[in-house]
Design brief:
With 741 residues, this protein is mainly beta. Helices cover 7% and strands 46% of the residues. The protein contains six helices and 41 strands. A hairpin with a 2-residue loop joins strand 12 and strand 13. The longest helix is centred in the C-terminal third of the chain and has 15 residues. The chain has a 15-stranded antiparallel sheet that branches.
C-alpha cells in the first residue's frame, strides 16, 4: 500500500495521463510573426476570433515571434496581428480541425497601425509540428458523402490503413490490429461498448449524422496525450452560431427498384421487401429570452455569448431477411433413407428395420411434422435433406436526439476567461426480430428474439484560459442498457436435432447495462519554443449483466457408449462411412434416440450451490486513472521534437457480490509445484489433484488478480521538413497504452 501511495504521489505531482485523447475534442493553432526581412517580431498582439460565434482569444508573440492557441473549438477563424510601427494584418479563413495542430505564418508590413493589410494563404498546408498522422472528416464530407446507413463512422472506411471486410466498417481492422485497439470518443467521452469491446468503429451512443460536425482518425503511434488504443477516433457535435441555421430532411428507400437475388429466383422465393424512411430536422443559433424580473420585459441576446443546437433524426424500416434452413424430405420423415451406392445406383433402405430397429417417436414426430417441406436443393443431400427458403419479416424503428449548449461565462477577467459546454445525446432502438444476430425463429410461426436499447451520453465541460494556460475540465456519463430478449420463455426442454435445423429457437434472454463515469482535465501551456501538455483522466465502469444461456435443459439426440443405434457399414448395401453418418443422424432424430442432455446451473449466493433454472446475474466494476505529460519543442522552424510519458493505473475489476469463481492457484501449477511454473529446472513434484474452485472478489478478500502499478509509457516523436515545399518527414517511438475490455 505504501508503494502504491508513493508511486501515485510522484505521478500526481507530474500530472501525467494516458487518456487525454478522450478530451481532444479541440484543435490547436500555432504561428509565427515576422517583419518583411523575415526577422521575428516579439511582443506583437495576436487575436483569434471565431467566424461563427464571435468568440475571441488573445495572446502575444514571444521573443522568437511565436504564438499559440490551444484547446480551440474546431471551426473557421480570423487572426488579427498588431504591433507598433507596422500595419495591422488580418488573416481570414483559418481552419482549425479536431485533434489537429494548425499553423500560420504572418508577415507584417511597415506602416501605420491605422492601416490594414488582409493576408491570404497564411495557413500552412503541411503540418510541420506534430509527428502523428491524423485524418479529419470535415463537416462538408459528413453532409455531402453518400451514407445509406447515415452512420458517420462508416466514413472511416475511406481512410488509409483501415481494412474493411465487405461492408462491415464497424468490424474493420486498423493497421491489422484487433478491434479492442481502437478508442472512440464522442465530445471527449468514452463512447464505446465497454463490456463487449470487440468492434473498432462501434459508437454505442450512436451519433446522429445531422449533429456531427466532424471527426478525426489517428492511425499510427499516438502521443502521450492519447490512450486506450493505438487508433484514435474523436467525434464532435455541432454547435450554434450567431446566425440561425437549420434544416429538414426526408429520405426514402424502396425495394420497388430492386431486383430479386439469384438464390431467391432459383427457389421461387419472393423478393425481400425493404422500406426505409429517414426523417428529421436540426436548428441552431444564439439564445434569446425575455426577463420579466422587474415587471418590464427586457430582451437578452446571446449573440457572441450563448448558443444552442438541437437535432432529431428518426428511422422507420420494414424489411425481410432471406433464410435457407435444412429440413427432412417426406421420405426421410417416414424412415426411408436413400443414397447413391458405390455401384452408382440409388439405394433405398428403411431405417426402422436397421440396427436396433425402432418406431417413429411421437414427441420428435410432432416437431418434425411442424417443419415445412423442402422448396430447394441448395442445402442438404437432395435425397433425405433439402432446403426450405423463406423471408423473415421485421421492423427496425429508432430515434436520436441531440442537444448542445455553449455559454461564454466570463471573458478577460483577472480570473481568466471561462466557457461552458453541455452536450446531451439520446438514442432509442428496437429490432424485432433480431436478424442482425440471427436470433429469429428457425421457421415461420416460431418464437423470435428481439433487441432493445436506450443509449444516453452527456457531458459538461468548463473551457478556461488563464493567460497562456488553457484548460478543459470535463465530466461525462454514458449508459446504454441493452437487452436481447426472447418473446416468450420455454416450458419444456429443447430438443437438439442432428440431421436438420432445430425446430425451436434455443436462444435465451440476456442483457447488460454498462455505465461509464469519466472525469478529465487537460492543460496546455506554451513557454518559449515549448508547448507543454499535461492532465489526467479517471474512468469508472459499472456493468450490470444477466444471461439465461443454457438454463433451459436441452435433450441432444444421438448415441453414446451405452446407447448406440446399431447402424454400421454392413447395414447399407454399397454404402460409405459418410452414408452411415447421415443415416445414423436421421435415425436418431426420428426415433428420438438419446445421446445426452445438458443444462446450465448458476450460483445465486455463496451458500446456494449450483441451481437449475437460475439466471447468471453479475455486476462488474472497474476503474482506471491515467496521467500524462508531453513537451512539444520547436527546435527550429522546420524541426519539432516531442517528448512525453504516460502513466496508467488500471484497477483490478471487482465482482461486488463475490460470486466470481477461480481455481485455487496451488492446483494449477503442474508437476513443478506451487510457485515453480516459471522454473523449468525445479524438481519434479507430485502431480496436482482435482482443482479446488474458490469464490473470489467482493468481500472474500481474494482479488481476481493483482494491481499492476508499473505502466509507464515513454514517447518520442520528430517532425522535420527539409524545406516547406518538399513535404514532411516524421518518426515516432512510443508505447500506445493498454486497451481495456
Amino acid at each position: 500500500m505504501k508503494r502504491f501511495l508513493g508511486i501515485m504521489t510522484v505521478v500526481a505531482a507530474l500530472l501525467l495521463s494516458q487518456h487525454a485523447a478522450q478530451a481532444q475534442t479541440k484543435g490547436s493553432l500555432s504561428g509565427s510573426v515576422q517583419d518583411p526581412n523575415g526577422a521575428p517580431i516579439a511582443g506583437a498582439a495576436v487575436g483569434l476570433k471565431s467566424t461563427s460565434t464571435g468568440s475571441e482569444r488573445n495572446t502575444i508573440t514571444n521573443d522568437r515571434g511565436a504564438f499559440s492557441f490551444n484547446l480551440v473549438e474546431p471551426g473557421d477563424y480570423s487572426i488579427v496581428v498588431e504591433n507598433a510601427g507596422f500595419k495591422k494584418a488580418v488573416a481570414t479563413g483559418v481552419s482549425i480541425e479536431v485533434s489537429k495542430a494548425s499553423q500560420v505564418s504572418i508577415t507584417l508590413e511597415i506602416g501605420l497601425a491605422s492601416e490594414t493589410v488582409t493576408v491570404t494563404s497564411a495557413q500552412d498546408v503541411i503540418n510541420t509540428s506534430s509527428p502523428t498522422l491524423t485524418s479529419v472528416i470535415s463537416t462538408k464530407q459528413v453532409v455531402d458523402l453518400p451514407l445509406p446507413t447515415r452512420n458517420p463512422l462508416d466514413l472511416a472506411a475511406l481512410q488509409a490503413g483501415i481494412a474493411v471486410v465487405g461492408t462491415n466498417t464497424r468490424g474493420a481492422s486498423v493497421g491489422g490490429l484487433r478491434g479492442s485497439a481502437t478508442n472512440v470518443t464522442q465530445d471527449g467521452i468514452n463512447a464505446m461498448d465497454n463490456f463487449v469491446k470487440t468492434s473498432s468503429f462501434f459508437d454505442i451512443s450512436s451519433p446522429s449524422l445531422n449533429s456531427t460536425a466532424e471527426f478525426s482518425i489517428t492511425t499510427n503511434t499516438v502521443g502521450s496525450e492519447s490512450g486506450r488504443g493505438v487508433a484514435q477516433v474523436n467525434l464532435v457535435t455541432k454547435g450554434g452560431s450567431n446566425d440561425f441555421h437549420g434544416g429538414i430532411f426526408y429520405l426514402h428507400r424502396n425495394d420497388a427498384f430492386n431486383s430479386n437475388t439469384f438464390f431467391n429466383n432459383a427457389t421461387n422465393t419472393p423478393k425481400e421487401s425493404l422500406r426505409q424512411h429517414f426523417f428529421g430536422f436540426d436548428i441552431g443559433g444564439p439564445v434569446h429570452f425575455l426577463n420579466f424580473g422587474e415587471g418590464v420585459p427586457k430582451h437578452w441576446s446571446g449573440k457572441d455569448k450563448a448558443f444552442f443546437f438541437f437535432s432529431y433524426e428518426g428511422f422507420r424500416e420494414s424489411f425481410q431477411a432471406s433464410r435457407n434452413r435444412t429440413v427432412l424430405t417426406p421420405e426421410a420423415r417416414s424412415g426411408i433413407f436413400r443414397y447413391v451406392g458405390t455401384n452408382g445406383v440409388v439405394q433405398t433402405v428403411n431405417l426402422l428395420n436397421l440396427g436396433i430397429g425402432g418406431v417413429l417417436n411421437p414427441l420428435t414426430k410432432v416437431q418434425i411434422d411442424s417443419t415445412p417441406l423442402p422448396n430447394n436443393d441448395l442445402v442438404g443431400d437432395g435425397f433425405n435433406t433439402s432446403g426450405f427458403r423463406f423471408n423473415v419479416p421485421g421492423t427496425d424503428p429508432n430515434d436520436k436526439y441531440v442537444f448542445r449548449y455553449d455559454h461564454q461565462l466570463v471573458k478577460d477577467t483577472r480570473l481568466g476567461s471561462h466557457k461552458l459546454e453541455f452536450v446531451y445525446n439520446r438514442a432509442t432502438f428496437l429490432l424485432t426480430p433480431d436478424t442482425f444476430n440471427s436470433l429469429e425463429a428457425p421457421f415461420p410461426g416460431g418464437v423470435n428474439a428481439f433487441q432493445s436499447s436506450v443509449r444516453t451520453l452527456y457531458t459538461g465541460a468548463l473551457v478556461s484560459q488563464f493567460g497562456n494556460l488553457s484548460s478543459v475540465f470535463r465530466y461525462g456519463k454514458q449508459y446504454a442498457p441493452v437487452g436481447f430478449l426472447r418473446e416468450s420463455q420455454p416450458t419444456t426442454p429443447f430438443i437438439n436435432f442432428s440431421s436438420f435445423t432445430d425446430v425451436e429457437n434455443r436462444f435465451l434472454s440476456q442483457g447488460r447495462n454498462t455505465t461509464v463515469h469519466q472525469f478529465s482535465d487537460n492543460f496546455a501551456l506554451p513557454k518559449g519554443n515549448h508547448l507543454f501538455r499535461f492532465g489526467f483522466d479517471y474512468q469508472q465502469v459499472f456493468a450490470d449483466t444477466f444471461n439465461d444461456t443454457g438454463i433451459n435443459p436441452t435433450i441432444n439426440l444421438g448415441t453414446n457408449s451405452s446407447n448406440g443405434n446399431g447402424i454400421t457399414l454392413a447395414s447399407l448395401p454399397f454404402g460409405t462411412n459418410a452414408d452411415v453418418s447421415r443415416a445414423s443422424a436421421i435415425f436418431n432424430d426420428i426415433v428420438g434416440n438419446l445421446g445426452s442432455a445438458s443444462a446450465t446451473f448458476n450460483v445465486l449466493s455463496a451458500n446456494s450451490g449450483f441451481v437449475l433454472g437460475a439466471t447468471r446475474s453479475r455486476i462488474f466494476r472497474g476503474r482506471d486513472l491515467a496521467l500524462f505529460f508531453q513537451d512539444q519543442w520547436r527546435v527550429k522552424s522546420n524541426l519539432t521534437l516531442s517528448l512525453g510519458v504516460r502513466y496508467e493505473f488500471e484497477g483490478v475489476p471487482t465482482v461486488p457480490n463475490g460470486l466470481a469463481i477461480q481455481p485455487d492457484p496451488k492446483d494449477i501449477f503442474g508437476v513443478s509445484g506451487f510457485g515453480n511454473v516459471f522454473r523449468p529446472t525445479a524438481a519434479v513434484g507430485a502431480p496436482p489433484g482435482v482443482a479446488t474452485l474458490n469464490f473470489v472478489s467482493g468481500s472474500t478478500g481474494i482479488g481476481l488478480f493483482r494491481n499492476d502499478l508499473n505502466n509507464f509509457a515513454p514517447f518520442v516523436g520528430i517532425a522535420y521538413s527539409p524545406n516547406f515545399d518538399s513535404g514532411i518527414g516524421r518518426a515516432l517511438f512510443g508505447e500506445s497504452g493498454k486497451s481495456s475490455i
